[in-house]
Structure prediction request, 170 residues.
Amino acid sequence: MKKLLFTAFVSLSTLFVPYSSCIAQSNKVNDLSSIDQMYSSKLVGTWNCDSVKMEVEDATVTMKGGTSYFTNKRSNTFGTMIIDYPKENITLEYDYFGTGTWDIDNKKLVEVLEDIKLTNISHLYMDQLFNMTDMFPKNISASSSIISLSQSNITLKDDTEDVIFTCSKK
Prediction:
């Protein structure tokens, strides 16, 4: 934090520095709070995101979907997840729908996926072997840095996986 002090006022500066530091810190917090409020208002709505591909162990997971953010800080996420196991020559496809909460904090989108339901749409017999929904824990928390946000587009960077998400508003 920059402080501009004139050496001629040394005696005054000993009183002024702690006070000005508090004001500057308060202004910084207020500015960040204003940005977070602006981001929150722009975020409300339904967003469709570009597909994202990730390598996970012996599989490639591709997700395509979106999220609806509501003014009450609730959210619904939806889409399709494709899991490709090239060694086994099998590709599984699931539709997903989840519910959760969201908030903007310090220019970050903080989300909690409270519950998710996955529906197998490709190999129904696999449901007898395992239930994919049961493999997802409840209340999964994640945060993403907001790289850019306008009324119609958002770019996010996942804080743990470094995955970039780009979405446009419906």
